[in-house]
Amino acid sequence: MIDLRSDTVTKPTPAMRKAMMEADVGDDVYGEDPTVNRLEQKAAEVTGKEAALFLPTGTMGNTIAVKIHTEHGQEVICDARSHLLNYELAMMAWFSGCVARAIPAEDGILSWNQIEGQIRPLGPHWAPTGLIEIENTHNMAGGTVYSPSAICEICAGAHERGLKVHMDGARVFNASVATGVPVSDLVSATDTVMFCLSKGLGAPVGSLLAGTAEAMARGRLYRKRLGGGMRQAGVLAAAGLIALEQTPKRLAVDHANAKFLAEGLGRMRGIQADASKVVTNIVIFNVAATGLSSAEISGRLKRLGVLMNGINDREMRAVTHYDVDRAGCEKALLVMAEALSGSTAAGA
Question: In the predicted model, is pLDDT for residue 345 greater than 50?
Fold first, then answer.
């Protein structure tokens, strides 16, 4: 199977498996796992933050960040298509008692001008703003990337008003490669940042939340409340260290393969794919004019050996990663053409 459903499907590399087998471990809830401690220190260095916290999932990281920065009854400003709002089971409400102030943003990238007009002070009729959240890269907008200047402008404006900024940086290493800017510079103005080890970086499990030492100390307590105390987690952290050290330098290959896919898809009748907007490893394309739903196309692809998901009836998503090389992408395009061959709108 050629699996383009997500970069979460990557398998651990031989180096990761070896590191996991040989990892020094201890009880992380007691702070005694040396491999977890090394990973957290490395994550703090990479992000330029005081401290970091190892977590099983990115959703847990975002949930903890919202809790750290807000009080019950506040609003969180975010993009209308953000992962935080749409794909995390309403955790900002369930765990933090907050609601979203969702702003529709072109390509998923919020500007300070958009945000400033939605900030609400404490008053007798509305929920005040408690936090601003940005997503970099933006998943459902097709892996789009914030410019460093846009991030700095948002953070400066927020801090002037006494507000914090959290970055959902699940794929921030992809953003770094796409912009040529180190992760530490991209996130320097944010108060917290979460990034995933288990997406493009290829580790089997894990995410990191980074921020001030005080915030991470509080976050450790929230992690325990959410069931994230993993005890001898060094076997997982060992793979994460390999991911941080080895994988970022090859993410450009994934980006090139994604653009290659988008260019090939864009040449197929009935498919709308704009390769010029593909800057990282996510391709979102419209299939409405094929005469088939995304679910129908997905089913045909699966029978032919390619896995690719629809995100609604009209759109599909392909995500490149190191387990699918250029030859795999070429085959996926041939299979897509075959899958569409029974559709009149596809020109059969």
Answer: no
pLDDT over threshold 50, residue 344: no
Q: Which residue has the tokens 């939605």?
A: 118
Tell me how far CA of residue 165 lies from CA of 130, 133, 211, 246, 264, in angstroms.
10, 6, 11, 29, 38
Residue 270 Ramachandran class (φ > 0 left, ψ -120 to 50 alpha, else beta): left
Pairing of strands 75-79, 282-286: unpaired
Cα 338–Cα 142–Cα 172 angle in degrees, nearest 5: 130
Distance of alpha carbon 118 from the chain centroid: 24
* Alpha carbon separation from 159 to 60, 191, 200 (Å, rounded): 25, 10, 31
Beta carbons within 8 Å of 282's beta carbon, 6+ residues apart: 137, 139, 142, 143, 258, 317, 318, 319
* DSSP code for 23: -
Residue pLDDT, tens place only, 85-101? 999 999 999 999 999 99
DSSP β-ladder status, 99-103 and 75-79: parallel
- For residue range 233-254, list pLDDT tens digits in order: 999 999 999 999 999 999 999 9
For residue 83, which of 176, 6, 191 has the smallest C-alpha distance? 6
Place of tokens 């704009």: 274
Domains and CATH numbers, the chain: 12-246 (3.40.640.10), 250-346 (3.90.1150.10)
d(CA 345, CA 343): 5
Tokens standing for residue 34: 């040396």
Nearest Cα residue to 69 out of 208, 188, 183, 194: 194
Please tell me the predicted confidence (pLDDT) of residue 46.
Answer: 98
Structure tokens of 229? Answer: 């105390």
Strand partners, 52: 210
- C-alpha separations of 68 from 50, 82, 131, 222 in Å: 15, 19, 10, 9
Residue 195 confidence class, pLDDT cut points 50, 70, 90: very high
Tokens of 95: 């765990």
Residue with tokens 């029974």: 342
0.90 exceeded by pTM? yes
